[in-house]
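**Paired protein data**
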Amino acid sequence: MQRTDAEFAARTVPINARPIQAMISISRKYSASCSIANGISENLSFPVTPANLGDHVSRWYEDNYGSKTHVDPSPGRFPLLIEGAAYACRIPLVFGSTLVVTSKGMKPNKAILNTLDHVVDLPVAVRSRMSGSVENEIQAVFETCIEVAQDVRAFKTPIMFSARTDILVSCDLVCGFNVNPSLSAWHALQFAEKVLKQYISAHKEPPRVHDIPRLIEVAQSLGYKMDPSLDVSIFSFGPSVRYEPDAINLERAVRINHEAWRVGYNVLKQAES
C-alpha cells in the first residue's frame, strides 16, 4: 500500500481518487479480480483475498488520510447570517425538477428539498425560533445559488473552475474557524469578476482589472443586459482589502457573497457555455 500510494503521490493523483485506483492497481499487479464496491460489513481478516481487498484498501486510506479521502458531492455552498452567526448552507446535487421549500417545522422528506436541512450545524433551538421573514430570505438566496451552481458546472473553462473555488473559499472564510470577512469579500468579488470575464471572453480578451462596474460596462457593450436590481456599489473596494482583516464586517461580507451569486445568476443565464 505504501509503495502504491507513493506512486500516486509522485503523479499528484488527488487523495480522494486514490482508494479506487489502488484497488485497480493492486488487483492488476496480482492478476486478481476484485470488486471496487465494498460490502455491507467490513472484512479485515487475513489473508487478503479478492473478496476483501477493497475493505483493506479503504481502511488503509482511512487510517492514513482520514477525512481527506472523503468526497464532497455538493456543487457549492454559501453563507447565511442567522442571529448574528454565519452558517454554511450546502447546495445539494439535484437531478431533474424538485420542490424547494424553507420550513423550520417540516420533517425530512425525500420528495421535497427543505433548505434548512442543508444548513451545516444549525442548532435546533435557532431553527425552532426562526421567523417567517428569515425563512423567505433563505429561500430566495438558496434558489439563486442552486441555479448558479448548476450553471457554473456547465462551463469547463479554467476561469470558471477558478471562480467556483473563489465562491467556496468566500463562504469558508466567514463560516469556518479562521474567520476573515475582508478576505471573504475579496474572493466573492473575484467570483463576480471571473463570471463577467467568462462572458466577455466569448467575444474578446477581457480587460485585466478587478473593477466590477468597468467589467459590466464592457460586457454591456457586447450585449449583456444587467439586472438593475444588482447592487454593484457593494464591490467598491480594492485588492488591499486582503490585508485589512477588519475593513469589512461579517454582515457586509455575507451580503457581498450573496450579491456575487446574484451577479453570477444574471450573467451566466446570458453567457454561452
